[in-house]
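R.M. (postdoc): so does anyone remember the format we settled on? I'll just put the structure tokens first.
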């Protein structure tokens, strides 16, 4: 590892601590207690014996954490978005928690991450298992960008810097705007919300709703940045994006207050027995979807980055099994494949051909080495 791998990107990637009026708003929040934002219910980031549990799961999932072949993509260009969806609502899952949603004539991009790695460095950290199916330069006009929290797999400095050069509004949780401002987003294009606050952008209503998680971009900002799930509502349609969250009873309240939802995008992967309170497992993801009164669930936060010791395909297999048992509708698109909930056209089970098998992995020598770097926009990996 050379020194160049760390500099000069690292300090800027850590973001900035809220200050001035931004910090005052943080302090006035009812969720900010004794110097830090608190979860809606008591929450531990890791259980007792977390290390032992983690090591056991790492052993069990050895050789199963990556797909057995190349992940198929449905490539998109800006022209695919020239005509809006017939039904008024369409989602394109671009990988992990990044979703482009066309809703009632507007376009909203959630948790955009175009970098190769979700890490403070372009040289190390979890690397993508597939490229984005939409080049950054092919992104159509966006009415709004929504960020759930400041973890690297949801808030990507290179992507924010590139978005700062476009004319788009950002809706983010309290305190998070400090990161955006440091990276060049003008203050007038940043709206920070506390849980249950709503703002209007381009005729859509954006509401930050509670989530059971945490933020920790760096020691300097610890406790002063809020995390959230999001509701976006137009004249005809409503969608929910979970960000990262553990299970908690608040999903029922969000469903009551802001549902029913035509589409829920719910964190389904990166769960672990060592951190059960801050990430949903697949069965809990389906439960959250039902609590929220969602019509169709799109599992997110799986497949793209290897962040947790579970088999690559387990999030969607388990979610689909639970959905069948509970009578829920879950759709698993390829990255780039359109999901238009009202058309009731279910994607095929493309991931099954890629299900990793222990025997196959034992024969593959490269199982623990990162895959070849996918192609990303050069300006997004430059410091
Ligand atoms: Zn997170
Ligand atoms: Zn995450």
């Amino acid at each position: 590892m050379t020194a160049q791998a760390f500099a000069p990107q690292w300090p800027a990637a850590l973001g900035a601590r809220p200050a001035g009026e931004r910090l005052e708003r943080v302090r006035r929040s009812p969720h900010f207690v004794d110097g830090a934002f608190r979860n809606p219910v008591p929450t531990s980031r890791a259980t007792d014996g977390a290390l032992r549990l983690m090591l056991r799961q790492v052993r069990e999932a050895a050789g199963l954490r990556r797909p057995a072949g190349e992940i198929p993509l449905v490539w998109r260009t800006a022209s695919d978005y020239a005509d809006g969806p017939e039904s008024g609502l369409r989602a394109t899952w671009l990988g992990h928690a990044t979703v482009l949603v066309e809703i009632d004539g507007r376009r909203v991009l959630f948790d955009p991450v175009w970098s190769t790695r979700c890490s403070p460095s372009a040289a190390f950290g979890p690397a993508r298992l597939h490229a984005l199916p939409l080049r950054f330069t092919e992104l159509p006009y966006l009415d709004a960008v929504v960020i759930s929290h400041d973890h690297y797999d949801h808030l990507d400095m290179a992507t924010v810097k590139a978005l700062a050069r476009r004319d788009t509004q950002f809706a983010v949780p309290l305190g998070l705007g400090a990161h955006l401002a440091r990276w060049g987003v003008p203050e007038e294009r940043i709206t920070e919300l506390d849980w249950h606050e709503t703002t209007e952008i381009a005729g859509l209503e954006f509401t930050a709703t509670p989530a059971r998680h945490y933020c920790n971009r760096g020691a300097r900002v610890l406790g002063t940045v809020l995390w959230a799930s999001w509701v976006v509502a137009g004249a005809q349609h409503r969608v929910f994006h979970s960000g990262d969250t553990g299970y908690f009873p608040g999903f029922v309240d969000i469903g009551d207050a802001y549902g029913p939802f035509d589409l829920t995008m719910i964190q389904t992967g990166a769960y672990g027995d060592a951190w059960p309170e801050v990430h949903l497992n697949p069965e809990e993801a389906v439960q959250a979807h039902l609590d929220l009164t969602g019509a169709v669930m799109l599992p997110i936060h799986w497949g793209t980055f290897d962040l947790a010791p579970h088999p690559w395909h387990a999030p969607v297999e388990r979610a689909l099994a639970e959905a069948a048992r509970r009578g829920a509708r879950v759709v698993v698109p390829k990255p780039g494949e359109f999901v238009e909930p009202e058309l009731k056209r279910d994607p095929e089970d493309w991931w099954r051909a890629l299900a990793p098998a222990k025997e196959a992995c034992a024969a593959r020598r490269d199982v623990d080495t990162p895959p070849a770097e996918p192609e990303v926009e050069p300006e997004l990996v430059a410091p």
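R.M.: ...and that's the designed sequence above, right after the tokens. Also worth knowing: The CA atoms of residues 144 and 168 lie 6 Å apart. Residues 151, 153-154, 244, 270, 301 surround zinc ion (ligand 2) (CB under 6 Å).
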